[in-house]
Amino acid sequence: MDGLMQLACAEFAEILASNAPAPGGGGASAYVGALGIALGSMAGRLTGGKAKYKEVQGEIEALLQYADRLRLRLQELVAEDALAFAPLARAYGLPTGTDAEKRVKAETLEIALKAACDVPLAIMEACCEAIVLIGEFAEKGSKLAVSDAGAGAVFCKAALIGASLNVFINTKLMMDKSYAEALNAKASAMVAEYGGKADEIYEAVRGRM
After folding, report:
1. What is the Cα 200 distance to its own chain's centre?
2. Helix axes 146-171, 99-116, angle to 10 degrees
3. Residue-wise pLDDT tens digits, 59-116
4. Thinking of the domain 25-207, which architecture would CATH place it in?
5. Cβ partners under 8 Å of residue 147, min gap 6
6. Which helix (H) or strand (E) holds 139?
7. Which residues does 161 contact at the CB level (< 8 Å), separation at least 6?
8. How far is it, in rounded angstroms, from Cα 78 to Cα 126?
């Protein structure tokens, strides 16, 4: 799974379309998020060296360094999401022939379900950061690349929502309902706040066209 980001786009899509359990929605969301912040970076780099934007060059350079780290993190999360699914798959496959086996499976599954939420939540957090950065690129970057920044915001919103579904499907099965509700509330709050920010960026970009 470590080599997922070394695959050509067509190969990644082919594996995604197969019956392989991973990569799935989480990994694809991380990939889309990485593409989204890459589009924001593109808008920033197309601003570099332009006399018209010399007053924001320092800010743009700092934003680009941050964006590059964020893109690499999202690319890492593509593989991490695939790896995180393995313990959950093993837990689902445990025997349930006796009461003792049922108890072990339930306990193991609960641990695996909680761990399986870590990566999609990390993807969501990275996408939230990416949306904020893209807003900066859209506001301060070249007007010629503003559509790329807008597209990046849309991509990151899609990635944010996609990753949230991986949280919700796992929390639904948890026995610890208070823990599940806390994760659901955290994920829902991120979607509401940063999905809304992405919409604002889109509308601002659209208004400049």
Report:
1. 19
2. 160
3. 889 999 999 999 999 999 999 998 988 898 899 999 999 999 999 999 999 999 999 9
4. Up-down Bundle (1.20)
5. 205, 209
6. helix 118-140
7. 191, 195
8. 12
